[in-house]
Design goal:
The structure holds two protein chains of two kinds. By secondary structure, chain A is mainly alpha-helical. Chain A folds into three domains: about 1-135; about 135-555, no CATH class; about 560-635. Chain A is built from 25 helices and two strands. In chain A, helix 10 packs antiparallel against helix 15 (about 330-355), helix 14 packs across helix 17 (about 395-410) and helix 15 (about 330-355) runs antiparallel to helix 20 (about 455-470). The longest helix of chain A is centred in the last third of the chain and has 47 residues, at about 560-605. Chain A is globular. The mean pLDDT of chain A is about 90. Chain B is elongated, with a radius of gyration of 18 Å.
Chain lengths: ~625, ~110
Amino acid sequence: MINLVWLIPLFPLIGFLINGLGRSFLPKGAVGFIGSLTVFLSFAVSLGIFFELNGSVTKSFTIQLFDWIQVGNLSIPFSFQVDPLSSLMLLIVTGIGFLIHVYSIGYMHHDTGFAKFFSYLNLFVFFMLLLVLGSNYVVMFIGWEGVGLCSYLLIGFWFSNPAYASAAKKAFVMNRIGDLGFLIAIFLIFNTFNSVEFAKVFPQAASLTAGSDVITLITILLFVGATGKSAQIPLFTWLPDAMAGPTPVSALIHAATMVTAGIYMIARSNILFTLAPFTLDIIAVVGLATAILAALIAITQTDIKKVLAYSTVSQLGYMFLGLGVGAYTGAFFHVITHAFFKALLFLGAGSVIHAVSNEQDMRSMGGLKSKLPVTFYTMLMGTIAISGLPPFSGFFSKDEILAHAYEHSKLLWLIGVIGAMFTAFYMFRMLFLTFFGKFRGTTEQQAHLHESPASMTFPLIVLAVLSIIGGFIGVPEALHGNHWLAGFLEPVFSASEQRTGASHLDHSTEYILMTVSVIAAVVASFIAYLRYARNNHVPVPDTAERTAFANVSYNKFYIDEIYDALITKPLNILSGFFYRIVDKTFIDGFVNGLGRATAEAGKGLRLLQTGNIGFYIFIMIAGIVALLVYGFYNI
Amino acid sequence: MEAVTQSIQGVPLNHYILLSAIIFSIGVMGVLIRRNAIIIFMSIELMLNAVNLLFTAFSAHRGDAAGQVFVFFVMALAAAEVAIGLAIIVMIYRNTNSTDINVLNRLKW
């Protein structure tokens, strides 16, 4: 089965080709069927590989497809790596990808670009699988760039709206900044280790001393790449804008899979990062700062998708916090559970948006509980899971990260818990604003309210079940579990764990930590209940006065404006200078001057062209004589 | 043929060269000075035949037939040139009622 790993990315590629080439004549039913089927086939193969790997003694396989680049001592095979980390990621990408494809059949049904949408989605899955499977940094980078491209195409899917098109451009440009860091890191890795193969780089790295300059530099650059893709400070502002894309895209790309690529990449290179404690500290601080900042923004947003987007940024921040404190398993655990509940929440939000005729402002929603029962109950599960209430999945993964943070520094843990409180607050706020109270939209919208079709509710139910039980793959020892996930991922992280040492929190401390974070989450959700469900508080309209903090938070801490003033404006001024002075004056002046000189010379020389044949002949003979004389005297 | 060759060889080579040069120069001067297209044509023929004369003289003096073969080529070429050139002159005459080449000065900027 493992030898058939190349089938996994191949199926979505075939789906992309069929749907892309046949988009103008394939019926919608066939397009949806092909799009979903190809991803399902990949899921089936991934499942087979997962079980085979689980039962096998060797935990890492490299399947080489062909030699790709062979120049001098640079050798880059096109090969795939199957190990616990990639096989779990395969399951997430193809499994959730499949559910979201099914969901899209219902969600995008009215759209004219139905086939285009499915072909892009399949292409995305293909690149994501390439990213996950690559056994060296270069193949990973192909996937890395490919998902960026698909993200761009899908954010700007409704490109006739200029705001959406510029959101797509913003995402692409900000990703490019990060990609540059990743690219330079790859060059440095090759320069240092003479190879870009994981299997060659990591053993060499393990023998190096910790904290050497080159390792620190490589890891910082890799982290820059991760901040771009995974929306961390300072490159996170593209992700909320990316909500311009259709909701299934937000669920698949901007919640479950692509944005976790940065975490996957760091978890994959964990040994390099373990050797660079300085970088790990930066990652922890940046991750925590992002988690808090995004949570603070999320608590006042009124657009249902924006709340979820900032929530995603915030949760990604937690994952980076986990990586930064050395909890690689915990961070990856959170990737898995987050993929479940955040995909669920986005799909639920899509179902709500679908029901209220494309309204996204929660101020015009409310009271949808009875109209959309399936959506409500599934989203409730997702909300509880993300808030970290036991025994839902988010509880286990978030607590593992927080426990490691506590071990590392109590301050990190405290801020993390406060962030978790905010998470519970804004998620329940969103839930209550949407589903409780009275409907606040137009009567037209009210008449149109309906539960979504089965193709949309089926994925919701599956994801809700996964959000509830997903945490049981990593029950900590303190709760009498055996943490299956940690055991499964052990071969990937063992080299790092040998250096850092195993976790040594005693069980009573762990109980206290868990209790504190659960109480914090319960209190926060209760405040949200009082404010938004009991007292029916509705966020004020845009025109109304806000308190100073609410104003700053509602305006996203003016970060877009700050970037605009600090980077975009000066860049524009600089570009304007280069355009007017360097380009217009010097370059254009030189090119035009050359043309003008030629024209002037021609004007003078054409006077020789008299039209008098005798004169021509005379010149000719004079020339011949001159040549003869020259030849006679100079041989 | 022997007799012809011998009679050619009877005259020193220098004389042939000198004669050819004179005829060739006359041709050049004719082309340069005369304005009548037909006369210019004849001058060109003079130049060609001056060269032919030189070819045969060298050929006979060196006992090498290649020079004479070349003469045939030159003759064939001259015939073709005359055929086309005269046709052009006839057309020019029909249009301008003259064979003066200075009439044809419109081919300029």
